[in-house]
Design a protein that fits this description.
heterodimer; A: alpha+beta; Beta-lactamase; five-stranded antiparallel β-sheet; B: globular
Chain lengths: 657, 370
């Protein structure tokens, strides 16, 4: 115990007592300062403060700011504030709660949920704070209550602004929704600034940009009588409304996409590759965000949660799927970049392939029983030759594969400005050892070459990768916010695209080979999506994918209708168009849709057709985007009129009558 | 054979229940005063008082349990507690980000503050543990490690972001370093670096926190927001005069002019209704609790207990000083409740656990020769 011999307990204790004495003395001095201040306030300034208290007839009430509106890229309203009336009860002014509630129920319809929520809040709230009993009264109900109002002291009709999503379920994946603010959320912000605010962004854009959408609280000075009842408004410091946000979403494209996905489980994302703007972000099945705004009923929420199709799950951002053959264009690029194959070099792509020297002689099958024969990069992509990519992946190795795919955004967060996005997975040998407790086998690399096995990507990541590919390596961070309008300064601020570090290849010929292969997918008879794009007026580069869900069934050899639904393959498709100057990149996943060529590719066709038909004009034989700068948007001037609802003098509490 | 006297005395309270009579009496008096004033502040609603009593019973229970743990056991547990708290803090940071996503609003909100509450105790304990076997005053490597032990969790908490709690945690740890007898020139350096760090702190603050500081410096800046609250609070206290307006008779409080009159601003209700005399009585009670804590620290037998007890007492005094200072317009508005009296407060359990430690230190003394 050499350490202990160095300690000198007696000296240390003496030292400690000295220090404690110092600290205690300091605290004592501060207590005396408090005391001095109290004497000053309560003795010397008493007369002044007593008269101030006597004349205190001024009360300050908070005026919550109207929440910023959300628009699509063309100025279509996605989220707005609509006036609504709620029935509120101030417990301390109600003489007999039971009787009042019973009598009220005869005038205005009150559901079980309303009553339950009210009782919970009655137990947990302050008696002098009013509690909402019913929200969204109809004009008829307001009128009916107004007539009977004298019978109900302590019960008032209160006007407020309700958040409303006019396009309902079709926009929930992109916009998200607000709900009633909870205690934890209140603690994460300046509670004063949320005085009187009912809502808080719970998900999506509404959550991510909560701070900007909210605005700044205002105050109103009221003169009150000796009982604290308001008499008149003395002065008003109006609230600063939240910022209006213009999203890059194209509401029309979004609706077409949602419609095409209807009845399926899956997701689709469209991106403008030149900026990273997300044009559509759809996941199916869906639900109406308006259900959540004022609190969802228990039964409805239970139904949503227990639905096996998982409508609450945003597949476009959080659905992590094996990319299957849609990974092949990127694999081909990796193979050429690392000099495993040359663009024109032909490998033999037979019906199956074996790892050289594998004692088990395991066969890795091609989807096509006949194989593809001698195959170069273009053919390998257009025919989706599995055995070509087995060889390529095996020779490339998992490390180089991971390093290359990461440049296209696989396996890491995209940085999109919304909530709930997942990063996908680029498996490494360390990852497998850590999570599965098994070493990495060469076979893992081989199946990764066709996007199966452990590799996972979200639809957003696939669309982003397709966009980077279409731009020959120059990607942009995917984002949803296109512009914002600051209510204080006015004017519209455009969001500047954030370029990603470019993917640089040794030769431009590699990009051309892959573009050619993907063009043949949709334009040549042997391409896997030829059927889906027959007669399509635009040039499209695409790639199909079919991800096996169960290894027991193999959809190309079995009649699909005999396979149980939840074991059917996932269909995928990525594409961009037009090939020579891309304006849109898409990715689609249809769960259990079977092969990507017939489940997902037709959706891509609809999306690309809609977007290019409606947003481009032909100039000298070339498609050009119609001008649509944010500054030219005609946003509705409804903002200034909306807050006036709250600026009305507060209705005097009913107890005064 | 000389008669052996148990250093813990002979009473039932001390020997069997491990409670310190003086401290217990003062705490119960504070709690009693608190409930009386809460009844008035809530507008005469007994249900609010009942809810507070429930919370207090839980707190006293925790205090009692902690008091049963002898301080040498506490010392052994310290590193575990500290690292567990640190791990939880990191988990909160990592999970907190994921938690912003789809499932966020389903999660029930108890997890967030717990690790930082734990750290309010674990940090001073860890510093005391670090110093307990080392020669004091600390210097060189020991001092450096101690500073790390304080700063790392403080930064993690500040990132949550919860600047207020981060400062309180850092302060509790710094008190131990001070009490351990750190050299004056280090102390001087410490204050200089705090002054230098103020711009950094400013950077860490939210807009609203900056606003509050600015409003404090110039109340005219925000006459309708925070400035109004401070004004109303000072009117309440000042109009109370020497004798007060009497229980349930404070016009400021009863007519709803006072903001947060049951929580952070409860002292202004007290000042209005019980006047200067009442305020002196309350300050006296607090001073007594602090004094008793310092005496327990001085009587403690080993440096771990001594340092811990000292830090707890000083931290408690800061709560009292900051809250009352804020209510009577001496400090900017920061969200610190008046300990044992303000309604609610997640920190009640932490506070009572700390008092449990003080009691344990006082009543688990061993028979040793000085």
């Amino acid at each position: 115990m050499s350490k202990k011999t160095l300690k000198n307990p007696v000296r240390e204790r003496r030292q400690f007592i000295w220090r404690i004495g110092m600290a205690g003395g300091f605290v004592l001095v501060l207590f005396l300062v408090l005391l001095g201040r109290l004497v000053y306030l309560q003795v010397f300034e008493h007369a002044r403060y007593a008269s101030l208290a006597q004349e205190n007839r001024v009360r300050v009430v908070a005026l919550p700011p109207p929440r910023g509106l959300i628009y699509d890229r063309h100025g279509v309203v996605l989220a707005e504030n609509v006036p609504s009336y709620s029935l509120e009860v101030t417990p301390e002014h109600v003489p007999n709660m039971q009787a009042t509630l019973a009598a009220l129920a005869k005038v205005i319809k009150l559901s079980q949920d309303d009553m339950r929520r009210f009782r919970t809040r009655l137990k947990g709230g302050w008696p002098f704070k009013s509690i909402a009993l019913r929200l969204n009264l109809s004009p008829e109900e307001v009128a009916r209550f107004a007539v009977e109002r004298y019978r109900f002291p302590g019960v008032d009709i209160v006007p407020r602004l309700r958040r409303y999503y006019p396009l309902g379920a079709s926009m929930v994946d992109a916009v998200g929704y607000v709900g009633r603010i909870d205690v934890k959320e209140l603690r994460s912000v300046d509670a004063k600034n949320y005085d009187g605010t009912a809502y808080f962004g719970k998900m999506g854009i509404e959550r991510f940009y909560e701070r900007r959408l909210h605005g700044k609280v205002g105050y109103q000075k009221l003169e009150v009588d000796a009982h604290g009842r308001p008499l008149r408004v003395l002065s008003t410091q109006p609230p600063v409304p939240g910022e209006d946000l213009v999203l890059s979403i194209d509401a029309g494209l979004q609706r077409i996409t949602e419609k095409a996905l209807a009845g399926k489980e899956g997701a689709a994302v469209a991106i403008d590759p030149r900026t990273g703007e997300v044009l559509a972000l759809a996941s199916a099945p869906d639900y109406d965000p308006n259900w959540f705004v004022d609190g969802i009923s228990r039964a409805r929420y239970k139904a949503l949660r227990e639905d096996w199709r998982r409508p609450l799950f945003n597949r476009a951002l959080a659905g992590q799927y094996p990319p299957a053959s849609t990974i092949k264009p990127f694999m081909a690029l990796a193979g050429m970049q690392y000099n495993i194959v040359k663009p024109a070099q032909k490998l033999y792509a037979g019906p199956y392939w074996r790892i050289p020297g594998d004692p088990a002689k395991r066969k890795y099958l091609d989807w096509n029983r006949g194989g593809h024969g001698p195959t170069d990069v273009v053919k390998a992509i257009s025919e989706s030759a599995d055995t070509y990519f087995y060889q390529l992946a095996y020779r490339l190795g998992i490390r180089k594969m991971d390093a290359f795919l990461e440049k296209f955004g696989f396996g890491r967060p995209t940085g999109i400005d919304t909530t709930g996005a997942q990063p996908g997975l680029l498996p490494t040998p360390e990852w497998k050892q850590r999570t599965r407790g098994r070493p990495w086998y060469p076979g893992n690399t081989v199946v990764a070459g066709i996007g199966q096995g452990f590799l996972l990507a979200t639809p957003l990541q696939l669309a982003n990768a397709a966009a980077i590919l279409s731009m020959r390596g120059q990607g942009f961070r995917p984002h949803l916010l296109r512009a914002s309008r600051d209510p204080e300064q006015g004017g519209i601020h455009s969001q500047v695209p954030t370029p990603l570090p470019p993917v640089q290849l040794r030769s431009a010929a590699y990009w051309e080979a892959v573009d050619r292969g993907m063009w043949e997918v949709t334009h040549q008879r042997h391409g896997t999506a030829w059927q889906a794009f027959r007669g399509f007026p635009y040039s499209v580069a695409g790639k199909t994918g079919t991800a096996q869900v169960s290894s027991f069934y193999y959809s190309d050899t079995t009649d699909e209708s005999t396979i149980p639904y939840n074991l059917r393959d996932n269909g995928l498709f990525i594409a961009f168009a037009p090939v020579d100057h891309p304006l849109v990149a898409v990715a689609i996943v249809v769960e259990h849709g079977g092969g990507g060529s017939h489940s997902a590719a037709p959706l891509a066709r609809k999306m690309i057709a809609y977007y290019l038909d409606n947003n481009t004009i032909k100039v000298d034989g070339r498609l050009v985007l119609k001008p649509n700068a944010p500054a030219e948007l005609h946003l509705q001037p409804t903002r200034s009129s909306a807050p006036s609802l709250r600026l009305l003098p507060q209705v005097a509490p009913n107890a005064a009558h | 054979m000389p008669r052996i006297e148990d250093p813990n005395g002979s009473g039932l309270l001390r020997r069997r229940l491990h409670l310190d009579g003086w401290l217990l009496a003062a705490l119960l008096a504070l709690i009693g005063v608190g409930l009386i004033i809460l009844y008035s502040a809530s507008g005469g609603h007994i249900s609010v008082v009942y809810r507070q009593i429930t919370r207090l019973v839980l707190g006293v229970g925790v205090m009692f349990l902690v008091a049963q743990i002898a301080s040498y056991h506490l010392r052994r547990l310290t590193p575990w507690l500290y690292f567990a708290g640190l791990a939880l803090l990191m988990l909160v940071l990592i999970k907190g980000e994921v938690g912003m996503g789809a499932q966020r609003w389903l999660s029930l909100g108890v997890v967030r503050f717990q690790p930082s509450e734990l750290m309010k105790l674990a940090v001073p304990m860890a510093v005391a543990w670090l110093f307990s076997e080392r020669p004091l005053p600390p210097r060189g490597r020991d001092l450096f490690i101690a500073i790390l032990v304080v700063v790392v969790p403080a930064i993690l908490i500040a990132k949550e972001p919860d600047l207020g709690t981060a400062l309180l945690v850092a302060m509790a740890g710094s008190f131990v370093i001070f009490l351990a007898g750190i050299r004056y020139r280090y102390l001087f350096g410490f204050f200089v670096s705090i002054l230098a760090a103020l711009p950094v702190l400013w950077h860490f603050m939210h807009g609203y926190q900056r606003n509050r500081v600015l409003t404090f410096i110039n109340p005219e800046r925000d006459p309708l927001g925070t400035g109004y609250h401070i004004m109303q609070s000072m009117i309440a206290v000042g109009s109370g005069g020497i004798y007060g307006k009497g229980w349930l008779n404070g016009t400021q409080a009863q007519l709803d002019f006072l903001p947060e009159r049951s929580t952070d601003f409860i002292f202004s209700v007290f000042g209005e209704e019980f006047g200067l005399l009442g305020a002196i009585f309350l300050l006296g009670l607090y001073a007594f609790v602090i004094l008793r804590g310092l005496i327990i620290a001085v009587n403690a037998q080993d440096s771990y207990s001594r340092l811990l007890a000292g830090s707890i007492s000083l931290t408690f005094s800061v709560y009292v000083l900051v809250n009352i200072g804020m209510v009577i317009g001496l400090l900017p508005v920061v969200g610190v409740p008046l300990p044992l009296i303000s309604y609610g407060g997640t920190s009640m359990v932490t506070l009572m656990a700390a008092f449990g430690m003080l009691m344990s230190i006082q009543t688990h003394r061993r028979l040793v020769a000085h």
